[in-house]
Amino acid sequence: MKKLSLLSLATLASMQFIDAQVISSKKWTDHFSYNNVLAMKEDNGKIVAATENGIFYYTIATGEMTKLSKANGLHDINISAFDYNPQTKIGVIGYANGSMDVITPQEIKYIVDIPIATGYNGSKRINHISITGDQAVISVGYGVSIFNINKKEFGDSAFFVNGGVYEASNEATIFGNKLYSVTNTGLKSHELNTTFPVFSTWTTEIPGSFKHIDAESSSLIFSSATAAFIYNNGTGTPLPATFGGIKDIVLSSNNIVVTDSRIYTFGLNGVSLNAVSMGEDCNTALTANGKVYGGTILSGIKDEGGTTYKPSGPYSNSSYKINLYDNNQMLISSGSRLNRYNQPGENPKKPGFYYFNGSEWIYPSYFIGKTFPINVLDAVMNPADNSEVFFTNYTVGAQGVYKMKYNPGNKDFDLSKYYDMGAPSIYYRRPVGFAFDNQNNIFVSVGFHDGSPSIGIYDKAADDFIIKKFGISSEGMQKPIFHENQLWIPIPRSNNFIVYDYKNPTNLSDDVDYILKDSNGFAGNSKGTLSVAFSKSGDAWIGTDSGLRIMSNAATEIKNPDPKVEPIIIEQNGLGEELFRDGQILQIEVDAGDYKWISVDGGGVYYLSSDGQQTIKHFTKENSPLPTNSVTDIKVDKKTGKVYFVTFNGIVAYQGDVADLTANFGHVVVYPNPVVYSNFKGKVTIKGLAEKTNIRITDAAGNVIHSAVARGGYYEWDLNNMKGNRVASGIYFVLMTNEDGSDKATAKIAVVN
């Protein structure tokens, strides 16, 4: 069989790794879950653990915890394999898409040979990694590859293929001068010689379906799903225990650890030493300092005494919407929907919602072990009583609004009441998202109301919801937005948008409904509206599944007989182009400077000027820590400028430059400063400015070399003078006044070319 040559995996042997652009910085933080531990290694009193979206290091003696993710060095998410060499301090991460990160004490290198391979079209998921010295054995759907860690390049590879059908290597390792691989048809081996790539020269030493394998200098162990064996010259000696579903086997210099429903420890001779239960399912386990540590699915690392160790993070990475509150509190919903919502149906783990109380993440015990359908699309605090949380359950069979009470004593939530919204059957009245007005009235959008969308209005006196049905044909609803005493509601399954002027919330007789459709300016090929946000001037920015529309002075325009929405036209090469034409606009958020954050399905997040004519930043999963290019929610903390991006694969936050603005200056900061060209070639940022700032930059002699007007609280200078040439090395003075000249600020910038 053909060898998995470097030409089929990449282009040239000299291009086996990528010096990938740095996609993380100090401005990014992750809010990933570190509960689901996939693999662990022990290194002289420190445990290195791999989870779905990152790894963390736990020092047993001190309790010190550090983490590494896409927010501070890694290049991807969805980790599927990991190994670490305690002698060299080098780790190798394998991802579900076939890429790898090689982590050394000096750097992190991104390896993309397998994802871009053209010689194999099957699954490229990294199933397993085993490091021996400077070599790592990589198990994939096609078979195995040898990766040279020092050179950062692939060597020989073997395609496990018979009659054109590939067989995956479940796991593999080097033992002596041979490589051993467990597959669904047997334990296979081959010497590390010139015929290694030829599959017909491989030996099936023991037929059977085997899942796991590990080796040390003098021992080799392997297992099926129900039995574990010590390898002995072509035969397997079974370990003396009955297993039901082996998750992992780990061989160290002094014992064998088998992870099943319990964690079993054996001597190297196979003698049973111990069996402990962690009280929950584990993916893997090891022993360190005389203790057993389990890598759990839901609680991070857990020792045999029941103590858990993990970085702070939510219960799960599955996330859909976020709501921010005072004192750094957050509520995260985990739901999802079919039809243009980027994920097929609900999360089978049914995680519900997660709560951050400002210092730690709390997960309601109510959701643990629940068997009925749970698909939470929104979770919010009651504005009149922040100890109460309302959440929507969208899924057929248990749909409705649920009210919970937070108990700070045990840091948990108790169910207070369930509202079925008067649903006549299990298929109707599925609540989606909440909105509040200035009087703390609670509203919830409801889909599937006998063929029409509706709004639930909370009647405080009756402690129940009044249902207001809208007269259009559509099953879908989105989360409403409150603006100017009206509810603005996107309709995702028809080309409509509803503005609900409810006047007196519990009196439906005086309501006025405004319904927008194609004739009001939406694209003819649109099948739904998805999002809405409002600029500081009161313009409605409406995201549809086929582009962006703006309604100027929306609260007044909507009352006209024929209100209009219009696209934003930008000039490209002298021609007018519609901004985001045909794009699905999942979410729109406006920051304190009136700049717009816009999520486009599959296109990442755009940061636009207040009028939408300029793209200031464009974040994607390729150039930033975003987990995916489909961001389902964006929220800006206007006090700090921090921007939260929510995806089905986790949450990351970016420290923006625009915080809450006033007509006067805040704390003016210039960075980087000094600007050393050899270290930094971007723009210098000046933040903490007034809402409108007049800027003059002079040289040491007082000559004005640059001037500008900044809006939104910050400004970026490209270090060019008014002729467009880069300024010389030296000290430059920034002279700033606010709009009416009543407040002033100065700064210095040192430039070293």
Give a nutshell description of this structure:
With 753 residues, the chain is an all-beta fold. It is 1% helix and 47% strand.
Q: Describe it for me?
A:
Helices cover 1% and strands 47% of the residues. It is mainly β. Among the domains are: 316-419, no CATH class; 669-751, Immunoglobulin-like (Sandwich), CATH 2.60.40. A hairpin with a 4-residue loop joins strand 20 and strand 21. The chain is globular. The model is unreliable at 1-21 (pLDDT under 50).
| Percent of residues in β-strands | over 45%
Low-confidence stretches: 1-21
- Report the strand count: 67
> Termini, distance in Å?
56 Å
As a percent range, the share of helical residues equals under 10%
Strand arrangement across the biggest beta sheet: 61-67-66-63-64
Q: What is the 3D shape? A: globular
**Average residue pLDDT:** 92
What is the overall number of helices? 2
Rg over CA atoms, rounded to whole Å, is: 29 Å
Going by helix content, strand content and strand pairing, the class is mainly beta
How many strands, which pairing sense, and closed or not: the largest β-sheet?
Answer: 5 strands, mixed
SSE blueprint:
Elements: H1 6-9, E1 28-30, E2 37-43, E3 46-51, E4 54-59, E5 65-69, E6 79-85, E7 90-95, E8 100-103, E9 108-111, E10 128-132, E11 135-140, E12 143-148, E13 153-159, E14 161-162, E15 165-166, E16 171-175, E17 178-183, E18 186-191, E19 203-207, E20 212-215, E21 220-223, E22 228-232, E23 235-238, E24 248-251, E25 256-259, E26 263-266, E27 272-276, E28 282-288, E29 291-296, E30 301-303, E31 308-309, E32 321-324, E33 330-333, E34 353-356, E35 361-362, E36 376-382, E37 385-393, E38 400-407, E39 412-419, E40 430-436, E41 442-449, E42 452-459, E43 464-469, E44 481-483, E45 486-491, E46 496-501, E47 512-516, E48 529-534, E49 540-544, E50 547-551, H2 554-557, E51 569-572, E52 575-578, E53 585-590, E54 596-600, E55 604-608, E56 615-619, E57 633-637, E58 642-647, E59 650-655, E60 669-671, E61 675-676, E62 684-687, E63 692-698, E64 704-711, E65 714-717, E66 730-738, E67 744-752
Parallel strand pairs: 61-67
Antiparallel strand pairs: 1-59, 2-3, 3-4, 4-5, 6-7, 7-8, 8-9, 10-11, 11-12, 12-13, 14-15, 16-17, 17-18, 18-19, 20-21, 21-22, 22-23, 24-25, 25-26, 26-27, 28-29, 29-30, 30-31, 32-33, 33-34, 34-35, 36-37, 37-38, 38-39, 40-41, 41-42, 42-43, 44-45, 45-46, 46-47, 48-49, 49-50, 51-52, 53-54, 54-55, ...
